[in-house]
UniProtKB/TrEMBL annotation:
The keyword Metal-binding does not apply. Gene3D superfamilies: 3.40.630.30. This is Aminoglycoside N(6')-acetyltransferase type 1. It comes from Pseudovibrio axinellae. Homodimer. GO terms for biological process: response to antibiotic. SUPFAM superfamilies: Acyl-CoA N-acyltransferases (Nat). It is an enzyme of class 2 (transferase). GO terms for molecular function: aminoglycoside 6'-N-acetyltransferase activity. Residues 3-150 form the N-acetyltransferase domain. InterPro entries: Acyl_CoA_acyltransferase (IPR016181), Aminoglycoside_N6-AcTrfrase (IPR024170), Bact_Acetyltransf (IPR050832), GNAT_dom (IPR000182). Pfam families: Acetyltransf_1. Keywords: Acyltransferase, Antibiotic resistance, Transferase. It catalyses: kanamycin B + acetyl-CoA = N(6')-acetylkanamycin B + CoA + H(+).
Length: 150
């Protein structure tokens, strides 16, 4: 399916927040709007949008420049924070097209690798990452200790 992939702009903020909510529903659309506004100002994180020829958005991805990421060899490193494709459009190459545009842009910017993660039980994401050319580097369980500060 032919899609156009481009970096998102301020004009995309509403549709971006709505797609983000479909991927990360622990925040409200308004909270996503706030996060996106901060991202656009910080310039260390950006989004890509996939559009059908009609202009309908059918997917997005976000990249963040991290100082370090597990399994990576270069620092700083671009990190795929999330990717979402509309369920009706799955398995039509849209995710692959988004990743390819991101890859092309990162190579042009001088980066050597793109990193990502997925939860241990998300087999669908593991398969998608493999199909996009990612190699698994490690499996990790994260821990948190609450500091009961007064």
């Amino acid at each position: 399916m032919p899609v156009t992939i481009r970096k998102m702009r301020e004009a995309d903020i509403t549709v971006w927040a709505e797609m983000r909510f479909k991927l990360w529903d622990s925040l409200s659309v308004d909270e996503h709007l706030t996060d996106i506004s901060k991202m656009l100002r910080a310039k260390k994180r950006w989004g890509y949008i996939a559009l059908l020829p009609s202009g309908e958005p059918v997917g997005f991805a976000e990249i963040c420049i991290r100082e370090y990421a597990n399994g990576c060899t270069a620092q700083p490193v671009p990190f795929l924070e999330g990717i979402w494709v509309h369920p009706i459009q799955l398995r039509q190459g849209i995710g692959r097209s988004i990743i390819q545009q991101i890859t092309d842009d990162l190579i042009q910017s001088g980066f050597q690798e793109l990193c990502s993660d997925a939860s241990l039980d998300n087999k669908q994401s593991h398969m998608a990452h493999a199909s996009w050319g990612f190699d698994e580097t490690d499996r990790v369980v994260y821990f948190r200790k609450s500091l009961n500060c007064p």
